[in-house]
Write a structure and sequence with these properties.
By secondary structure, the protein is an alpha+beta fold. It contains 8 helices and 8 strands; from the N terminus they run H-H-H-E-E-H-H-E-E-E-H-H-E-E-E-H. Strand 7 (about 185-195) and strand 8 (about 200-210) form a beta hairpin. The longest helix is centred in the C-terminal third of the chain and has 20 residues, at about 220-240. It starts with 9 loop residues before the first helix and ends with a helix.
């Protein structure tokens, strides 16, 4: 039987285009059709068909507002947590995340490693402050630029190859948590790795603090809270 390469298989090409569109929506949500067309380098009609397909499958939805913008729908999260068996990550993390949110007053993100060294937000416990920062579920970040991604690298014994980022990785390995200002400059992330029974990192829990409320003097206290939360989730996962 012949082995078909991706370029030779129209069906595979279609799947890859849809996956790329979903990835872009997750990274940039909410996003307009006009923004996706040049990024995907496809015709407007082709991108429209992809969006309709993803919407009908329940993977994306139209965000609220007067302008049509697309965002990730709840279905991907539900699919990740579907099935029976051991206690799932989300179930183990949810009460711990809520407790950390209530203790600190700040938003808590749960993210997992994705392809290409990226981190994907799979759950959050939202701050009750009027001023708060929340990444929608499905948001994709470059793991080398986030506290959670750098904490995962530290737990895995890996580095980034970038001197500045590797200083943060080394600090995370030493302290058990990583402190990383967001590239936007609006928030500070404090992240710690969650590991499985073998000690391999499987996720990260990140406290997201607006710069206006962050004080350097709180670094150690908040870092310890995040480490405690990661340790608690790790213990629950290991016990199942």
């Amino acid at each position: 039987m012949p082995r078909w390469g991706v370029r030779d298989d129209p069906g595979m090409q279609s799947v890859l285009r849809s996956l790329r569109a979903f990835e872009l929506i997750a990274e940039r949500q909410p996003v307009r059709l006009a923004e996706l067309v040049p990024l995907l380098e496809l015709s407007k009609s082709t991108v429209q068909r992809i969006l309709r397909t993803l919407e009908s499958a329940g993977w994306i939805e139209i965000a609220s507002g007067d302008v049509t913008r697309w965002q990730v729908a709840p279905r991907p999260r539900e699919a990740l947590s579907a099935g029976r068996g051991p206690l799932r990550l989300g179930e183990a993390a949810a009460p711990v995340m809520a407790a950390l949110r209530d203790d600190t007053g700040e938003t808590v993100h749960l993210s997992v490693p994705g392809p290409g060294g990226r981190m994907v937000v799979v759950d959050h416990a939202e701050s009750r402050h009027e001023l708060r920062i929340v990444a929608p579920i499905g948001t994709v970040f470059d793991g080398t630029t986030t506290a959670g991604g750098l904490a995962v690298l530290a737990a895995a014994g890996e580095t980034t190859g970038d001197a500045a980022a590797d200083e943060l990785v080394a600090a995370a390995r030493r302290d058990g948590y990583c402190v990383r200002p967001a590239e936007s400059g609006h928030t500070v992330g404090i992240g710690a790795a969650i590991t499985d029974g073998s000690g391999a990192p499987v996720a990260a829990i990140v406290l997201v603090v607006p710069v206006l409320r962050y004080r350097v003097d709180d670094r150690a206290r908040l870092g310890a809270r995040v480490v405690d939360a990661a340790t608690a989730i790790t213990a629950v996962l290991a016990s199942r």
